[in-house]
Amino acid sequence: MSRQDAITASTTVDALFDTQIQNQSVSVSWNFPVAFTRDLFNPENSVLARTIIGSSPDKCHRILMFFDEGVVAANKQLPADIKNYCAHFKTQINLVCEPVGMPAGEIIKNDLHYIERMQKIVHEYRIDRHSYIIAIGGGALLDAAGLVAATSHRGIRHIRIPTTVLSQNDSGIGVKNGVNLFGQKNYVGTFAPPFAVLNDYNFIDTLPDREKIAGMAEAVKVGLIRDIEFFHWLEKSADELITFEPTAMRYMIRRCAELHMHQISKGGDPFETGSARPLDFGHWAAHKLEILTKHRLRHGEAVAIGMALDTRYSVACGLLPAGDDERVCFLLEHLGFKLWHSSLLMENSSGQLELLAGLQDFREHLGGELTITLLQQLGIGIEVNKMDNELVAQSLAWLKARHEESPL
Fold first, then answer.
1. Is residue 12 part of a domain?
2. What confidence tens digit (pLDDT) does each residue in 2-25 have?
3. pTM score, two decimals?
């Protein structure tokens, strides 16, 4: 039966059942503030209070707070500061219980037990859709708490307080939540914009150097695919950034966040209903590397390697001029990244590179056809739908040779 005959037959059958179809259209506009400040929990700083109170100053708003235990280890006064802040606004803010500590890092995303534990606390304190769940921590905690907020009562107001470079300049200002399952990054998750994102630069000051450096990878990424002037600024400011000069760090975080926000709001597909992930340059390999190294590599560290690989691949396949790969690698290394890890050459039982499975994982995560962002030129990304395994292998060999010639 031809396609046209099948359509005709289907239409005839529908007519027998008097089928009627109407299209339902729903349009939802999201708007949430992203603040950049210092001393967020100083009672004289009203940013958090104004965010919670909003247009209901006569109401006492109930809040539940989760915090990253690693953050409190570096900011021991934080729980007391939170309680003092809420006490200062006690007629308008009701902290329903002591702030609840949760494990630091990727562990919270690798075990659904933590999601259930948080949901149990939400239930125990009767947190409803007009209350607030506030998460203070790095990207892993924000992802997990965001999932809890999005799925409890079908959506509770969620305020993110990112505490790392990476979460302040990238993941914290996005619209995604999720945890890992079946060995895949963010297999369980939602698209649910937060109620607000409040960035406090003070948290950056107390980060370990390794965490400060890791977050810079996303700044290099967004400069490479969206803003050549920002990429040039990163090259010129690398000395200041690697010494964590405060003014340079603040600009890097804010500008990176602005570019991500612009893509999410103006890119036309904030919930990724298509096949592309235009902000994920270098990420197909990075996600697989995180799994292969059991998260011993930080996300930003894996992204730096993934960008180096895909930049070299862009040269190898003729998209990018020769020499641009060295330029990108030089910047990443100048910022403190090591662009090689032995897991890049891990093989499965069939003798194939485990890394290449990351391409299939990447495709499956969105569905549709494989879509990978490469570089057409520095500052401009281009989407391709096929990767040549042999060229990937050659690009890996190039990275390995660079590492062996001048190991960091």
1. no
2. 666 665 666 666 666 777 888 998
3. 0.89
